[in-house]
Amino acid sequence: MSSFSLKFPSLSLSPVFHSVSARPRTEVSVSPSPAAAPISLDSAENEAVRLEPRVEERDEYWVLKEKFREGINPQEKVKLQKEPMKLFMENGINELANMSMEDIDKSKLTKDDIDVRLKWLGLFHRRKHQYGRFMMRLKLPNGVTSGAQTRYLASVIKKYGKEGCADVTTRQNWQIRGVQLPDVPEIFEGLANVGLTSLQSGMDNVRNPVGNPLAGIDPHEIIDTRPYTNLLSQFITGNFRGNPEVTNLPRKWNVCVVGSLDLYEHPHINDLAYMPATKNGRFGFNLLVGGFFSPKRCAEAIPLDAWVPADDVIPVCKAVLEAYRDLGTRGNRQKTRMMWLIDELGIEAFRLEVVKRMPQQELERSSSEDLVQKQWERRDYLGVHPQKQEGYSFVGLHIPVGRVQAEDMDELARLADQYGTSELRLTVEQNIIIPNIENSKLETLLKEPLLEKFSPEPPLLMKGLVACTGNQFCGQAIIETKARALKVTREVDRLVSVPRPVRMHWTGCPNSCGQVQVADIGFMGCMTRDANGKTCEGADVFLGGRTGSDSHLGDVYKKGVPCDNLVPLVVDILVNHFGAVPREREEGEE
């Protein structure tokens, strides 16, 4: 096994950290979904067989051993036929970019290149709705980006006219749309010039490392997450060169580093979550593992009963990934996320496999000195808020369902340059924060025309609105989401007044990219029948999801609701569960 390591620098504890640690603390815990009983290993021989790594290194890439290839899923067969990372690491993308779509479609090998393997490079062919065009997903650790990066992305989508646009994703990331294959080598060069990459952002890879969107500027932060998320991204992508040690996972894998009392990072839905905690005077992290969404099952992350010092953030990430890569099954894609492996082995046996892969084969048990407060009420980051740096503020802008055009991106970059330090922060709720604004510039900024579209003070029902791509571009989506989410929310807002924000999430299919299970009210796309028995677009409605220190997943409230019937249902839910008041009554009582 080749070695790949990054030494994590020791971090000094800030005054903010000390002030937080002095407060009463209650350890955060989340309850897992019902899980299967651990496997029964009735003999040392059976145990050795099950714990034999299923992959091996060949010519610097990791491949599935021949003895474990029976019953594998179609995606694994595509990986076996041709190593996806060769398209990047051996410049296969250049040859592919010079081929016509007609020639590409003549061969199954090249057709699989553009439909499957290019996802390892962050390129998603929109065969169903935009044939010959691609969505490109970036890697943007902690959601931090610069004005120069934003302008470059705007220049890419601008050339594609109405086919080009961009989305803020639920992993603090950019996705740009309309990309054509012949342009990709030049786009890759441009990304590198501004310090960006799209490498390893799709399929069976580690997704964008999520952190606190207020890192380094929050007066109440526990720790600045940016150094950790940056190092995680550097490790995962091999400093933008590719890291084949972690590119052949059984399925996708999410990671976050928690730095806020508000848990903006949503740790309970990540495969690995770093939860800040001290131990014997040392700063580090307790670990949660296994959180995920899928069409067949959703599970909350559970404690690994492990604590690591700050220096071991990368080694433990590598160890967990290797345990999953080596031992995860590769059959039914609905049962290949890491939690299924944890269920099969049992959490203690899985922990032992992680320990085996640590540099010194040691892993401390979890700490009781958790730094996240159970009683903390999650704050709203939209609007104007003071930073920890005296005389400076940040402004949170609401980006309706995360959709932006090229001219919007240019304007956002200009505002970041003119009023801040040329920096933008993307959030998992698909919004954008401009940090480091001198207070003397706030009044002028708030009068900028762009803030009429991207308001710092949106209506309460709009504040928590999230929507996935939907079937406008995504071939897996069953219904249209973004425009419908805005339409339904506006209609509901005209009918009722709510006393506080209500988070409403839309997802076009059961893959739940819109994370409906963590919303107050969630809408998952489906096909159903209307009152006349005709097939129509509909939604399964979820209720009761929570984020923050008392996080838990919501449950199905009503299945198969025709989209045309959603407005009265949502009004009823808001009145009965969230204290909403009909607008007529509200006006009459004034």
UniProtKB/TrEMBL annotation:
The answer to whether the entry has keyword Nucleotidyltransferase is no
The highest taxon in the source lineage is: Eukaryota
Per UniProt, residues of the Nitrite/sulphite reductase 4Fe-4S domain are: 203-360, 465-576
The cofactors named for this UniProt entry are:
siroheme; [4Fe-4S] cluster
Q: Which UniProt keywords apply?
A: 4Fe-4S, Heme, Iron, Iron-sulfur, Metal-binding, Nitrate assimilation, Oxidoreductase
One Pfam family named in its UniProt record: NIR_SIR
Q: Which reaction does it catalyse?
A: 6 oxidized [2Fe-2S]-[ferredoxin] + NH4(+) + 2 H2O = nitrite + 6 reduced [2Fe-2S]-[ferredoxin] + 8 H(+)
Q: Which residues form the Nitrite/Sulfite reductase ferredoxin-like domain?
A: 127-193, 385-449
One of this protein's GO BP terms?
A: nitrate assimilation
The molecular function GO annotations come to: 4 iron, 4 sulfur cluster binding; ferredoxin-nitrite reductase activity; heme binding; metal ion binding
Q: Which of the seven top EC classes does this enzyme belong to?
A: oxidoreductase
Family annotation (PROSITE patterns)? NIR_SIR (PS00365)
Its EC number(s): 1.7.7.1
- Report whether Signal shows up as a keyword of the record: no
Q: In which pathway does it act?
A: Nitrogen metabolism; nitrate reduction (assimilation)
Gene3D superfamilies attached to this UniProt entry: 3.90.480.20, Sulfite Reductase Hemoprotein, domain 1
Record's PANTHER family? FERREDOXIN--NITRITE REDUCTASE, CHLOROPLASTIC
The record's comment on protein family reads: Belongs to the nitrite and sulfite reductase 4Fe-4S domain family.
State the protein's name: Ferredoxin--nitrite reductase, chloroplastic
Source species taxonomy: Eukaryota, Viridiplantae, Streptophyta, Embryophyta, Tracheophyta
